[in-house]
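As a warm-up, study this chain.
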Amino acid sequence: MQGSLMLDIDGTWLTAEDRAILRHPEVAGLILFARNIEDPRQVRDLTASIRAIRPDLLLAVDQEGGRVQRLRNGFVRLPAMRALADNPNAEELAALCGWVMATEVLAVGLDLSFAPVLDLDHQRSAVVGTRSFEGDPLRATALAGAFIQGMNNAGMAATGKHFPGHGWAEADSHVAIPVDERSLEQIRAVDLQPFARLSQQLAAVMPAHVIYPQVDSQPAGFSRRWLQEILRGELGFKGVIFSDDLSMAGAHVVGDAASRIEAAMVAGCDMGLVCNDRASAELALSALQRLKVAPPQGLSRMRRQAYPGIEYKQDPRWSQAISRLREAHLIV
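Now compare it with the structure written out below.
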């Protein structure tokens, strides 16, 4: 079985305990949260200290724009993606947002932001809401595709989330177990469209902690039906599958952290995220060691393809992008 673990740390620098756990080969990624971030220089120092221990480690963050933006002090405050849709030059602006976001994330030594959100805004899910590009699947696909192109132009691979769509289920999977009662045909016709149409542009996909009972009794991230038959089989997706955070309430249906990461790997996830709970991360690590997992294929595609230096703001492309976003009143 292939599989690996992405975990987090508590502070703005590595402790001896952090250094010890990061040396385990089953740990293949680390995600930063707002508590780990002070300013660009501190993040660069932190990522350098991590790479000194494990140069192969995949370093991630959630930097979507809007309210989901961990890098703030010294970084561009991007709009929520829903703010782009009503602009006459929405696709151009989406591409610029993708490029600006990726450039800043790469410049501080990180590999990727888990973006873009491909969920549709059905005006039902508060946890999705303005994180979505649009409610119309074709319009959302066009805007997300432009955002991905901007990310790629900066040197960052894209991760589409939350497969097959979290926009209809009303509950927040961080604190509850959302359920989407629609049929597979209904989901295919609407929410699955951005994933299907962009499947070859996505380097990775993150499934939702949502149960779709007409398709499978398990949440999508623990479902071979969703991950193997539909995502891999029907959509022909060949990239990396990241679980959403296995500490979230929506993942608790399958038991403790060891049971969750094993269920995610069996279903087809390549990397399981266990965040904000070091004891659970250690339990998940022990499970992967017991299972004797092999490193998953394809993770190298997620590593940064460009290395913008700290002087990236001197690049004329940067000035032009910032000017265009300001003209559209998307940033200040």
